[in-house]
C-alpha cells in the first residue's frame, strides 16, 4: 500500500519541480551567474559594469524583439542580422555619401528594411515557402545586398570614394548620441515596453498569439491570418533595422556585414524568453531577460579572461538548455 502511494506522489513531485524550473529557471540562472561572477570578481555588480552590460545587450535585445514578433505568429526570421547589416550601410551612406540629415538617413534605412520584410512575408505567406527555409535564403541574399551596396568595403567619414575623391558628408551629432549611454539603453527599454503593450494589451497582439497557437482555428474564427503574418514579418524587419541603426550610431561606421554576429544571440534571447514565467510563448519581457542572461554571461566570461572563441560554446549550451525546457514543457 505504501509503495502504491509513493509511486503516485513521486511523479507529481517531479512534475512540480519541472514546472518550477520551467517558470523560474531563467531567473535562477541569472541569480546564480551573478553570485558566481561576484565571487570571482568584485566588479560585476558595480554601477559602471551594470551600465556596460545594459549597453552591450541593447542592440541584441532590439533585434531579438523583432524575432520575437515573428515567433508570435508561429514564424521564424533568420534574416534579422542581414537586415540590420543593410540598415547600417544605408544609414551611414546617407550621411557620408549623400550628405543627408538624420531624419532622412533613418527613414531611408527603415523603409528599405520594410521592403525586405515584405519580400519575406510575400514568399512565406503567399508562395507558401516554409519560414525557416525562406529566411535562411534571404539571410544570404540580404547579406549580399549589404556587401554589394558597400562594394565590400567599410563606409566611413573621409573615406576614399571609387572616383578617387574624399567622401563629402559627415555623421550628424544628433545621430551619434543614439548609440551612447543613456540613449542606447533608453531606446532599448522603450522598444521592449511598446512591443510588450502591443502584444499583450491590444487585440492585434492577441490575434497574433492566437495565430501562433492554432493558425487554422484563427482563420475559422474570422481573423485575417495572412495580414497579421505579413505585419509580423514587416515589424521583425523594421525592429532589426532599428537595431542596425543603433549599431551604426555606436560604431559610427558601416563595417562589412556588421549585423551577422547578432543573429545567434538574438535567437538565444528570444527562445530563452519563451520560458519566462511559464508562458510558453514569445514575449518581449522574456526576450529582455534572455538578453540580460546572455549579457551577464558574456561579461562574466570576459572578466574571467575566457578566450572570445570559446564563448559561443557556452552560449550554445545556454540556448540548448532553454530549448530543452521549452520542448519538455510542450511534450
- Rounded to an integer, what's the Rg over CA atoms? 22 Å
| Number of E-state strands | 0
Q: Helix- and strand-based class? A: mainly alpha
Q: Please give the count of helices.
A: 13
Largest sheet: none
The N- to C-terminal Cα distance equals 31 Å
Specify the overall morphology. globular
Pattern of helices and strands: HHHHHHHHHHHHH
pLDDT < 50 runs, ≥5 residues? none
Strand-residue fraction? under 5%
Give a summary of the structure in a few sentences:
Helix content is 75%, strand content 0%.
Describe this structure in words.
The chain has 13 helices and no strands. The protein is mainly alpha-helical. The model has no long low-confidence stretch (mean pLDDT about 90).
Provide tags for this entry.
331 residues, mainly alpha, 13 helices, 0% strand
Topology:
Elements: H1 2-40, H2 47-72, H3 80-96, H4 102-126, H5 131-150, H6 173-178, H7 183-201, H8 203-213, H9 215-220, H10 225-251, H11 262-272, H12 284-303, H13 311-330
Helix pairs in contact: 1-12, 1-13, 2-7, 2-10, 2-11, 2-12, 3-4, 3-5, 3-10, 4-5, 4-10, 7-8, 8-10, 11-12, 11-13, 12-13
